[in-house]
Amino acid sequence: MSPAPRTPVPVRVTVDLPLYYLETVESTSTYLKEWSRQERLCSGTALYAGEQTSGRGRRGNRWVHVPGNLAMTIWMAASDLPANPPWTLKMAWTLLGYFSEFGSTGFLKYPNDIHLDSESGKIAGILVERLNNGYLIGVGVNRFSPEEVENAAGWEALPDHHAMALALSRRFRNQFSGSGKETVPSDVIMEDLNRRLLWKGEWVAWKDTGSATLSLGKIVRLDETGRLEISDPDGVTRYLPETVHAVRRVDPCEKSRP
What we know:
With 258 residues, this protein is of the alpha+beta class. It contains 4 helices and 15 strands. An 8-stranded mixed β-sheet has the order 1-2-3-6-10-9-8-7, sandwiched between helices.
Protein backbone atom coordinates (compact mmCIF):
# COMPACT_ATOMS: atom_id res chain seq x y z
CA MET A 1 0.00 0.00 0.00
CA SER A 2 1.35 3.37 -0.98
CA PRO A 3 0.67 6.44 1.13
CA ALA A 4 -1.65 9.12 -0.17
CA PRO A 5 0.11 12.06 -1.80
CA ARG A 6 1.36 14.11 1.11
CA THR A 7 4.37 16.11 2.17
CA PRO A 8 6.60 14.59 3.30
CA VAL A 9 6.03 11.14 1.79
CA PRO A 10 7.30 8.20 3.84
CA VAL A 11 9.51 5.55 2.25
CA ARG A 12 8.63 1.89 2.58
CA VAL A 13 11.58 0.10 4.18
CA THR A 14 10.96 -3.54 3.27
CA VAL A 15 8.54 -5.49 1.07
CA ASP A 16 7.51 -8.02 3.72
CA LEU A 17 6.36 -5.48 6.34
CA PRO A 18 4.23 -2.31 6.17
CA LEU A 19 7.11 -0.35 7.74
CA TYR A 20 7.73 3.24 6.61
CA TYR A 21 10.40 5.82 7.31
CA LEU A 22 10.56 9.61 7.36
CA GLU A 23 13.79 11.51 7.85
CA THR A 24 12.00 14.27 9.79
CA VAL A 25 8.49 14.50 11.21
CA GLU A 26 6.78 16.48 13.94
CA SER A 27 5.19 13.37 15.44
CA THR A 28 5.00 9.82 14.10
CA SER A 29 1.68 9.34 15.93
CA THR A 30 0.11 12.51 14.52
CA TYR A 31 1.27 11.67 11.00
CA LEU A 32 0.00 8.08 11.19
CA LYS A 33 -3.33 9.22 12.65
CA GLU A 34 -3.93 11.55 9.70
CA TRP A 35 -2.79 8.89 7.26
CA SER A 36 -5.20 6.30 8.73
CA ARG A 37 -8.06 8.74 8.17
CA GLN A 38 -7.15 9.15 4.50
CA GLU A 39 -6.52 5.50 3.67
CA ARG A 40 -7.45 2.05 4.87
CA LEU A 41 -4.16 0.94 6.36
CA CYS A 42 -3.37 -2.68 7.00
CA SER A 43 -3.12 -3.53 10.67
CA GLY A 44 0.48 -3.36 11.87
CA THR A 45 1.45 -0.42 9.65
CA ALA A 46 4.40 1.28 11.33
CA LEU A 47 6.12 4.63 10.85
CA TYR A 48 9.45 5.70 12.35
CA ALA A 49 11.60 8.77 11.94
CA GLY A 50 15.21 9.88 12.00
CA GLU A 51 14.19 13.10 13.74
CA GLN A 52 10.97 13.79 15.63
CA THR A 53 10.51 17.44 16.53
CA SER A 54 7.27 17.38 18.54
CA GLY A 55 6.93 13.92 20.00
CA ARG A 56 4.14 13.35 22.53
CA GLY A 57 4.27 11.73 25.95
CA ARG A 58 1.53 11.01 28.46
CA ARG A 59 -0.73 13.78 29.77
CA GLY A 60 0.37 16.25 27.14
CA ASN A 61 4.06 15.96 28.02
CA ARG A 62 6.68 16.14 25.30
CA TRP A 63 8.78 13.12 24.36
CA VAL A 64 12.31 14.44 23.80
CA HIS A 65 13.91 12.72 20.82
CA VAL A 66 17.67 12.45 20.33
CA PRO A 67 18.74 11.51 16.77
CA GLY A 68 19.73 7.85 16.79
CA ASN A 69 16.99 6.95 19.25
CA LEU A 70 13.85 5.19 18.09
CA ALA A 71 10.61 7.13 17.58
CA MET A 72 7.98 4.84 16.06
CA THR A 73 4.21 4.42 15.97
CA ILE A 74 2.24 1.33 14.95
CA TRP A 75 -1.39 1.43 13.84
CA MET A 76 -3.54 -1.56 14.81
CA ALA A 77 -7.12 -2.23 13.71
CA ALA A 78 -9.71 -2.15 16.48
CA SER A 79 -11.02 -5.58 15.50
CA ASP A 80 -7.67 -7.38 15.71
CA LEU A 81 -7.58 -8.64 19.30
CA PRO A 82 -9.39 -8.49 22.64
CA ALA A 83 -8.64 -5.46 24.82
CA ASN A 84 -6.91 -7.49 27.56
CA PRO A 85 -4.12 -7.23 28.21
CA PRO A 86 -4.05 -3.58 27.06
CA TRP A 87 -1.97 -2.61 24.03
CA THR A 88 0.43 -0.77 26.34
CA LEU A 89 1.31 -4.04 28.05
CA LYS A 90 1.48 -5.95 24.77
CA MET A 91 4.10 -3.48 23.56
CA ALA A 92 5.92 -3.57 26.91
CA TRP A 93 6.16 -7.35 26.62
CA THR A 94 7.49 -7.01 23.07
CA LEU A 95 10.15 -4.51 24.17
CA LEU A 96 11.25 -6.64 27.12
CA GLY A 97 11.64 -9.69 24.89
CA TYR A 98 13.68 -7.65 22.43
CA PHE A 99 15.93 -6.21 25.13
CA SER A 100 16.64 -9.70 26.45
CA GLU A 101 18.46 -10.40 23.18
CA PHE A 102 21.04 -7.81 24.27
CA GLY A 103 21.58 -9.20 27.76
CA SER A 104 19.00 -7.31 29.81
CA THR A 105 15.80 -8.74 31.25
CA GLY A 106 14.46 -5.22 31.86
CA PHE A 107 11.48 -4.20 33.99
CA LEU A 108 8.02 -2.76 33.41
CA LYS A 109 7.41 0.41 35.41
CA TYR A 110 3.64 0.57 35.46
CA PRO A 111 1.88 1.70 33.43
CA ASN A 112 3.97 2.49 30.34
CA ASP A 113 7.73 2.74 30.94
CA ILE A 114 10.63 0.29 30.63
CA HIS A 115 13.69 0.38 32.91
CA LEU A 116 16.79 -1.78 32.59
CA ASP A 117 16.97 -2.22 36.37
CA SER A 118 15.45 -0.83 39.55
CA GLU A 119 18.01 1.95 39.86
CA SER A 120 18.26 3.14 36.26
CA GLY A 121 16.11 5.69 34.51
CA LYS A 122 13.57 5.12 31.76
CA ILE A 123 14.98 3.46 28.65
CA ALA A 124 11.68 3.29 26.76
CA GLY A 125 8.16 4.72 26.91
CA ILE A 126 4.85 3.71 25.35
CA LEU A 127 1.88 5.90 24.46
CA VAL A 128 -1.38 4.36 23.21
CA GLU A 129 -4.18 6.41 21.68
CA ARG A 130 -7.61 4.99 20.91
CA LEU A 131 -9.11 6.02 17.57
CA ASN A 132 -12.52 5.25 16.08
CA ASN A 133 -10.96 2.76 13.67
CA GLY A 134 -8.07 1.40 15.71
CA TYR A 135 -5.17 2.17 18.00
CA LEU A 136 -1.97 4.18 17.69
CA ILE A 137 0.84 2.54 19.66
CA GLY A 138 3.72 4.95 20.02
CA VAL A 139 7.07 3.77 21.32
CA GLY A 140 10.28 5.64 22.07
CA VAL A 141 13.55 3.84 22.85
CA ASN A 142 16.71 5.63 24.01
CA ARG A 143 20.09 4.56 22.70
CA PHE A 144 21.34 7.92 23.93
CA SER A 145 20.03 9.56 27.07
CA PRO A 146 18.31 12.94 26.61
CA GLU A 147 20.37 15.13 28.94
CA GLU A 148 17.52 17.55 29.61
CA VAL A 149 15.13 14.81 30.79
CA GLU A 150 15.26 13.79 34.43
CA ASN A 151 15.23 10.04 35.14
CA ALA A 152 15.89 9.09 31.52
CA ALA A 153 18.56 6.58 30.54
CA GLY A 154 20.27 5.49 27.35
CA TRP A 155 21.62 2.11 26.27
CA GLU A 156 24.22 2.29 23.53
CA ALA A 157 24.43 -1.50 23.29
CA LEU A 158 21.25 -1.31 21.23
CA PRO A 159 21.50 -1.10 17.43
CA ASP A 160 20.56 2.03 15.50
CA HIS A 161 16.97 3.19 15.05
CA HIS A 162 16.67 1.53 11.64
CA ALA A 163 17.51 -1.91 13.02
CA MET A 164 15.32 -1.41 16.09
CA ALA A 165 12.32 -0.33 14.01
CA LEU A 166 12.62 -3.35 11.73
CA ALA A 167 13.04 -5.85 14.57
CA LEU A 168 10.35 -4.44 16.85
CA SER A 169 7.72 -3.92 14.15
CA ARG A 170 8.30 -7.48 12.92
CA ARG A 171 8.05 -8.90 16.45
CA PHE A 172 4.90 -6.97 17.21
CA ARG A 173 3.17 -7.75 13.91
CA ASN A 174 4.02 -11.48 14.09
CA GLN A 175 2.68 -11.66 17.63
CA PHE A 176 -0.40 -9.48 17.47
CA SER A 177 -1.51 -8.84 13.90
CA GLY A 178 -2.88 -10.73 10.95
CA SER A 179 -3.96 -14.01 12.53
CA GLY A 180 -6.79 -12.59 14.63
CA LYS A 181 -5.35 -14.21 17.74
CA GLU A 182 -2.20 -14.04 19.80
CA THR A 183 0.47 -16.62 19.07
CA VAL A 184 1.31 -16.60 22.80
CA PRO A 185 -1.59 -16.83 25.28
CA SER A 186 -2.42 -13.72 27.29
CA ASP A 187 -1.86 -15.52 30.58
CA VAL A 188 1.70 -16.35 29.54
CA ILE A 189 2.31 -12.69 28.66
CA MET A 190 0.90 -11.51 31.98
CA GLU A 191 2.91 -14.09 33.93
CA ASP A 192 6.08 -12.87 32.23
CA LEU A 193 5.23 -9.21 32.90
CA ASN A 194 4.60 -10.01 36.57
CA ARG A 195 8.10 -11.47 36.80
CA ARG A 196 9.43 -8.22 35.35
CA LEU A 197 7.26 -5.82 37.33
CA LEU A 198 9.38 -3.01 38.76
CA TRP A 199 9.16 -2.52 42.55
CA LYS A 200 6.95 -5.54 43.08
CA GLY A 201 6.43 -5.96 46.84
CA GLU A 202 7.67 -2.42 47.53
CA TRP A 203 5.89 0.76 48.64
CA VAL A 204 5.00 3.26 45.93
CA ALA A 205 3.15 6.56 45.66
CA TRP A 206 0.89 7.72 42.85
CA LYS A 207 -1.69 10.28 41.87
CA ASP A 208 -5.16 9.28 40.74
CA THR A 209 -6.56 10.92 37.63
CA GLY A 210 -7.69 14.46 38.42
CA SER A 211 -6.24 14.41 41.94
CA ALA A 212 -3.33 16.39 43.36
CA THR A 213 -3.09 14.12 46.41
CA LEU A 214 -0.54 11.33 46.67
CA SER A 215 -1.81 7.86 47.57
CA LEU A 216 0.41 5.12 49.04
CA GLY A 217 0.41 1.35 48.71
CA LYS A 218 2.49 -1.76 48.15
CA ILE A 219 2.65 -3.32 44.68
CA VAL A 220 1.18 -6.83 44.64
CA ARG A 221 0.88 -7.84 40.99
CA LEU A 222 -0.71 -7.17 37.61
CA ASP A 223 -4.11 -8.80 37.38
CA GLU A 224 -5.36 -10.65 34.29
CA THR A 225 -6.84 -7.47 32.80
CA GLY A 226 -3.57 -5.54 33.16
CA ARG A 227 -4.48 -3.42 36.19
CA LEU A 228 -1.91 -2.93 38.94
CA GLU A 229 -3.02 -4.52 42.22
CA ILE A 230 -2.05 -2.46 45.26
CA SER A 231 -2.34 -3.12 48.99
CA ASP A 232 -2.85 0.18 50.83
CA PRO A 233 -1.48 0.94 54.34
CA ASP A 234 -4.68 -0.51 55.88
CA GLY A 235 -4.30 -3.74 53.91
CA VAL A 236 -7.16 -2.94 51.56
CA THR A 237 -6.70 -4.08 47.97
CA ARG A 238 -7.31 -1.67 45.12
CA TYR A 239 -6.54 -1.64 41.42
CA LEU A 240 -4.81 1.12 39.48
CA PRO A 241 -5.84 1.68 35.84
CA GLU A 242 -3.53 2.68 33.00
CA THR A 243 -4.53 6.30 33.56
CA VAL A 244 -2.78 6.45 36.95
CA HIS A 245 -0.19 9.22 37.18
CA ALA A 246 3.44 9.19 38.33
CA VAL A 247 3.93 5.88 40.13
CA ARG A 248 7.20 6.15 42.09
CA ARG A 249 8.97 4.17 44.78
CA VAL A 250 8.94 5.65 48.29
CA ASP A 251 10.87 5.10 51.49
CA PRO A 252 8.96 2.70 53.78
CA CYS A 253 8.92 5.42 56.44
CA GLU A 254 7.06 7.77 54.10
CA LYS A 255 3.85 5.75 54.40
CA SER A 256 3.54 6.79 58.03
CA ARG A 257 4.20 10.48 57.50
CA PRO A 258 1.26 12.89 57.82
